[in-house]
């Protein structure tokens, strides 16, 4: 990292990168909301804000009190921004109009991993900014492939509060200076290692996976004695943001495949405000993000809360997983593995 850029504020970064002032202004408002969310989370047990509400979102999941509060904080912050035309969120059934003259459609997962709230685990806010389409309905403006995103990022609320963001040219990490309440640059030009020996998946779903995917995971677990001839470690935090941040920080593969459970035939995670922003960030770190056949960024969504399988992280491992899933004949697969082993 070029020391002269270290600890420069986000606003200084926007100027240095000549980011469109309207777009920069929207992100600045998102960050103000996220600082508010960080403060709210840190006091939530004291103020009795943990626990579930009696409401559920469009995916049928019970909404946490903080899911709704964080959504409100973001909405209140963005409703005054003339550049925001549309707003969509995991915690709202419908996308809404904000400012007719706005140029951007902004989608959110206000509090990702919210099941971690009650155990004081890491959670995050994920956002995606698209060019607003002059569409008949607000929802239509979000039905664009992820490759159209102008900006994508997440804020992780962990031991430190950090922003990971891309405007399509490289990925950057900022850390919240809690005293000054500003995000300062702590890492630029982030690169994810091409290969890894760490995978991240909820193993409790193994009985619901299809045979090919189960085979892939079994070979990771077989380690050195198996066809992969390498030992793998596993981690699962229960919050996509935290598991992806590990991948961004040291490589790895994050997996949430489709499975046979009710409503999970297309996976669990949502395409527009979870998978797409994460995919744009990873591609700009030299990593990859696929559903079980195509690059996630190439998919044109057909509805706002559409789900997608996610296979994301270190490119070599993502392709190996795809080879298993696409049921490459065992010969083709061992050829591929042999080739990739000789690659090292
Ligand atoms: P939300 O919390 O925003 O609904 O996100 C879904 C999520 O919590 C991801 O963050 C996480 O990766 C996954 O679901 C955990 O799923 P599971 O409980 O099946 O392990």
UniProtKB/TrEMBL annotation:
One of its GO terms (biological process) is sucrose biosynthetic process. It comes from the Bacteria. Residues 193-324 form the Fructose-1-6-bisphosphatase class 1 C-terminal domain. Pathway: Carbohydrate biosynthesis; Calvin cycle. Mg(2+) 2 binds at residues 109, 112, 274. InterPro entries: FBPase_C_dom, FBPase_class-1, FBPase_N, FBPtase, Fructose_bisphosphatase_AS. Coiled coil: none annotated. It is found in: Cytoplasm. Homotetramer. This is Fructose-1,6-bisphosphatase class 1. It comes from Gilvimarinus xylanilyticus. The gene is fbp.
